[in-house]
Known about the structure:
The protein is mainly beta. 0% of the residues lie in helices and 56% in strands.
Amino acid sequence: MIEVIGCSTDTISARIALPNSLGPSCLSPQQDRLYCALYPDTLFVVIDCAADTVIPPSIRVGSWPFVGCYSPAADKVYFGTYAGQDVAIIDCATNSVQATIPFPSMPWGMCTDPVSGNIYVTSRMTRQVLVLDGSGDSVLAAVEVGEVPGETYWNPVRHRAYIANENSHSVSVLRDAPGAIEEREESELRRVKGGATIVRGVLFLPSSLLSPLSFLLSVDGRKVLDLHAGPNDVSRLAPGVYFVRMVNDEWRMNGSKVVLTK
């Protein structure tokens, strides 16, 4: 059962009977509807918030809907199923399942960027966050994070998703961008696959990437800093584009460009 409380009077204004135990729920403000998963079940019920009544028929999804969120950019509800290991996408305009996306393991945490419509979903047992395209109902990227990723939280000010990694005792930070860039706290380093390395303050370079003589060049070819394995202090350099160069090596296309930011 759902009890509806009138906020102006702080009293119960309605009681809505449900056929099974109530699971995770989320609200579509555009449609003024509440989407309620039944647990343990394969059904959703949709509640008309204006009339406080159930809108028939029920929506059938995968087994044990476990976590859900609403995307205002797409006007869709996303629900991950515990036993089915997939995410069901419900179109709020038609109250129907528009697509189902299979997952490598059970979906656990979920959040959305209300501007782009991207959905961030943790894959519990595969150390991944899958980024879903709200407009195309497809997987944009799979980003490796810490061990046993769980809850996710969206920061609308910084446009970042925060992923709690339970067994790693860490938090992964993902920027909303093509490829879903992960930020690493220990080095202030963020790498776009196939693109530039973006750093602020410290450039961290693993020893496997460097030759005995390596240095940083400005865009006009001047050497501005000798580089060594580990953290390199670049805080005194002006913001801009630089290149990593190694003696007796040609320009490296993957990871050679470095963008310094304030």
